[in-house]
Amino acid sequence: MANADWGGHSGSRLGLDIGGTLAKLVFFESEVCPSWCTGRFAEVIKGLGKSKSENPASADYGFSRQGSFWGEQENELCFYDEELQGYFHFLCFRSEQMERFVSLIAAQELHHDIDEIFTTGGGAYKYAALFSEHLGITLKPVDELGVVVKGISWLLKRPISDEVCWLGEEENRTNKTFESECHFIDSSTNHLFPFILVNIGSGVSIVRVDGTDKFERVSGSALGGGTFWGLCNLLCPDCKDFSEASCKAVDGDSSSLNLTVEDIYGGDYELEGGRKLPGSLVASFFAKAGRGGNLHDDAALLHALITMVSQNICQIAFLNSRIQGVTKIVFTGNFLRQNQVARQVIATNMRRVTATSQQGKQLQALFLQHEGYFGALGSFLHNVEGDMKRVPTCQRLPTFLGKLSGRSPKMAERSAFQPIEFIFQRFQRCIRCFGNKKAHQTRKSTDTSAEKFTSVPFPKESGHQPIAREHAV
Amino acid sequence: MANADWGGHSGSRLGLDIGGTLAKLVFFESEVCPSWCTGRFAEVIKGLGKSKSENPASADYGFSRQGSFWGEQENELCFYDEELQGYFHFLCFRSEQMERFVSLIAAQELHHDIDEIFTTGGGAYKYAALFSEHLGITLKPVDELGVVVKGISWLLKRPISDEVCWLGEEENRTNKTFESECHFIDSSTNHLFPFILVNIGSGVSIVRVDGTDKFERVSGSALGGGTFWGLCNLLCPDCKDFSEASCKAVDGDSSSLNLTVEDIYGGDYELEGGRKLPGSLVASFFAKAGRGGNLHDDAALLHALITMVSQNICQIAFLNSRIQGVTKIVFTGNFLRQNQVARQVIATNMRRVTATSQQGKQLQALFLQHEGYFGALGSFLHNVEGDMKRVPTCQRLPTFLGKLSGRSPKMAERSAFQPIEFIFQRFQRCIRCFGNKKAHQTRKSTDTSAEKFTSVPFPKESGHQPIAREHAV
Fold first, then answer.
1. Residue ranges of region Disordered (chains A, B) (predicted)?
2. CB 3.0-4.6 Å disulfide test: which of B174, B226, B349, B405 passes with A284?
């Protein structure tokens, strides 16, 4: 394993999450002693985000932006880790393209140093034979929800700013960018636990998270991102790309499709006890399409579809948060990626139900910038941990282990067996780059309060009576 | 008011519920001293269910089965009331056809004896001017949820069998009729209160019902019957009729559209703690349609649409029942009418979540045979009550009032001012007819236990901690 600089093989630099619709990949590109293989890996993976003309190798295998679900490389999520001296790259493509991906790896001979990869998502089972037969790589499945929680917990403990945000009021949808409505909070000094995690992939998982190792799936929904994309394909067949679809939706007007309370009652609907359903509230999604004359533009259809899926998820999350007695609700998953309408619908509806709540409990919808990649990030951490344990000490180079504490490699080796959340605890700063390696900017200095996350006693919300958790639907 | 035989005007024989998509009408046809007007009314209304060739009058106004949402007259719901000596007829048509309906009433001169009608649904506001200008009739709005609860409470207290049922296991969907899977319960000897009412019209209202006059809307959803019909129109434009759509869906196979747990994981998905998500469970509705090759037949699309809407409603109902600590969930609304797939999906999913519940609480999904007409029935009861109070005593004929107690008309008059639930308490038997007037069969003799409904103290479920109710989404 010539020039291995992080554990024993380049598989430990990868994190894979192969979902029902999308495969998500995290890759760490080290600038320190790169092996031939990891350098080649980085070169190919970074190239996947480029156009065909820029990257003929990927074009041969059909990894074009138009041909994929979400696009490929997420340059705006890439960040440079000054202490690890390397870049974290984020990439996704449609899971059904896995054969092409495997062919690309084989053709570029990137697999020779990899014998196993911890992988999450159903694809860890589904594509196990494909990886084994064509690449000689064993996909080792890891629990999907566990790695998402692991990935979130790890990233939130890093001193990264601009990761967790809530959305402000929507004043003028068409003239405001998402960025201007986003209020980032310093998660390193806020105790997020306990929270309800709503992970929106093809389907939706709802998880109560009390700590990195203390979580439980309490509910879910089959009406998720896959539903949106499936119905989008049926209703707007010209729309080939999720990114295109979510951008088009921003300018859509779904009032020709959705039946509002005002359409039925001529205004607000007064409930018993003086409460009101506002006239602008959607009473029935798509109900106006049942009246014939179905000449709706794609933007209206897409806006209505995203609104339906997002508002429904918001409601199920809200009901579960009440059952669990938890007020912080964290929404993640690739459905939210570049999906301004979805985020805004969730934020607006959460505010509305909080405002009309008789109990007056403040529920907070929170969003994470790396929303779709926590499964892959958690798998990456598994690979690093697994690699630490598996590779003989003699093969571990001091370039990585030495960073852990400044102690001797032998001392450092022991600490490598601690849970991953402690491994990076002493790294001082993390610098993001937005697609530009040279634009290093120090965002935040060391904040030792990050350690608080592990010492929070996971208090229950006072005044709530949590009902015993069950798997819902 | 020549020959008036029930109160002062034929409006008191009507119940109207004008929803966002459908208008529902209940009409009582008395066999005792029918006035010219009520006889004509019955003749026209009964004729609406016939084909154009049988009923040229209705054909002129476009009330054809194909042109309507649900068909028109529901012969199988019609029942004969032996004590009232008359028939209850049930009819529905699309709300947007209201102008045609009003024109029909005007052309047939059926409105001369009617000055006001208690009406529920948004149409009571929306079409008020139409009724006033063309017919001189005032539509008096009554609270929508209140009349539904009123209608249910009234019908359940009548000694009618075969009204409330639960569905058994689905053994062989294609070879079994709905009727054979339906297990009727004798609601007159069972205490239904408290229950969660899930009323599925265009949208969905979720109401906690503790008694006839004790109820509260606790939640709702905009993903309801209107959503199904709207998406049906967009995806299956050749499908012109709800009845046709729901029948087609029975033979549909949505496995080419819905992504199951097995599709992702190759089998069951094991959760922490040993619980499992079964492989057959849908993980993402319509997700397979996102993979291109969208040549799906109407039956598959309709099955997938109904499954999506029904399963989602079931989940929201389940979550609300947990929050409220109530185990009986009654599903009503015209979306369920002739909709075998919807009922079965709800019943199956409710069984599943009950089986996987860690608390082991038995949740029961119940269905009512007159599911879509309780709003109209409640409005009818309002009209009867209102008429009793409004019409001078001298104009009330003994033919109806005398039935109340066998007492003198003056004595009977006093009892007419009692709440409607007491008015019919002493009627002995009620006989249903299924589209055949002659087929009178005594289903049940008097059961005085029906009175228990009003004396039930609405006990809370033990072991639950009901959270204060809020309006949800």
1. 441-473
2. B226
